[in-house]
Amino acid sequence: MEGTLHGRVGLVTGAAAGIGRSIAVGLARRGAHVMISDIDAEGGHDTVRSILDAGGHAVFHACDTTDPTECETLVDATLGAFGAVHMVANSLGAGSHAALTADFPPEEWREVISTHLDAVFYCMRAQIPAIIRSGGGAIVNIASVLGLVAWPQAPAYVAAKHGVIGLTKAAAVEYAPRGVRVNAVAPGILETSLLTEAGVTAGSEIQAFVTEKHAAGRLGTPEEIAEAAIWLLSDGASFTTGATLPVDGGFTAL
Ligand SMILES: NC(=O)c1ccc[n+]([C@@H]2O[C@H](COP(=O)([O-])OP(=O)(O)OC[C@H]3O[C@@H](n4cnc5c(N)ncnc54)[C@H](O)[C@@H]3O)[C@@H](O)[C@H]2O)c1
User: Residue 191: its pLDDT value, please?
Assistant: First the structure.
């Protein structure tokens, strides 16, 4: 796959860490020029540095994806830097409060829906016209297995991720005739900062419980999710749109 994306331009939101960083690094390693974006400028610049150090091309533009205007400015900055945008990964996220549905604080609900669902809408409404103007391309939204099945004490996250999968399908059917494919990846649980933020520490009972939910008997890595996302963004997936690909070590098959 090295070099297969020469002449293509990528844009990754949530690229300062975790899955987004792995997607950005993977796109650049295959020859794409990549716009790195995140609310975390320090982490974003670290991602750019690791791409430049490996001989790739990347620039950083800060964007809070809960702000529709900032999402539009980010797309303009990508077009300004690289002249086009063909491959977009939306991989932003944050931890969520744990509580039963009837106890879930409304302000926390709004926050989670804003970060995980509104943001993907704001991103795509800015990105789709630019992809069409660039001659076509693909978007991959990072959802979750919790967009396919439920998990207790995470009602807002479960609802937001089901929403991301629905929104992915809606955009896919609307824009397939105009050369834009839109897919989602549904990762199982990974060893990233989101897990630590949720209070799940290495070697803990809860970590063992979460691990057992995966038929593979282990948690995933951001690189394993990135491989699937990059395939969905590549021409190898030219007939795949509106799909949600579980990359979950068998979580949803159990
Ligand atoms: N880690 C997991 O176990 C797991 C499992 C399934 C799905 N996911 C999903 O994968 C996606 C990426 O998560 P990750 O594990 O890489 O987490 P991460 O915390 O490593 O990365 C998420 C990135 O999103 C950025 N971000 C948060 N809010 C933002 C905003 N408003 N604007 C711009 N950037 C923002 C953060 O700064 C961070 O760099 C999320 O949507 C998450 O829900 C994660």
Answer: 84
Would 254 be classed as within a structural domain? Answer: no
**214 torsion bin: left (phi>0), alpha (psi -120 to 50), beta (else):** beta
In a domain, 75, yes or no: yes
Token pair belonging to 24: 């950005």
In which domain, by residue range, is 140 found?
Answer: 9-247
Q: At 86, which CATH number?
A: 3.40.50.720
Q: Which residue has the higher pLDDT, 3 or 166?
A: 166
pLDDT in tens, 100-133: 999 999 999 999 999 999 999 999 999 999 999 9
Per the structure, the count of domains in the chain is 1
Answer whether 246 contacts ligand 1 (Cβ < 6 A): no
Task: Give how far Cα 206 sits from Cα of 146, 182, 200, 218, Å.
Answer: 17, 34, 6, 13
In a domain, 2, yes or no: no
The reply to whether 3 falls in a domain is: no
Active site residue 157: yes
For ligand 1, atom 18, the nearest C-alpha belongs to 18
21, 38, 122, 139: which to mutate for ligand 1, most atoms within 8 A of CB? Answer: 38
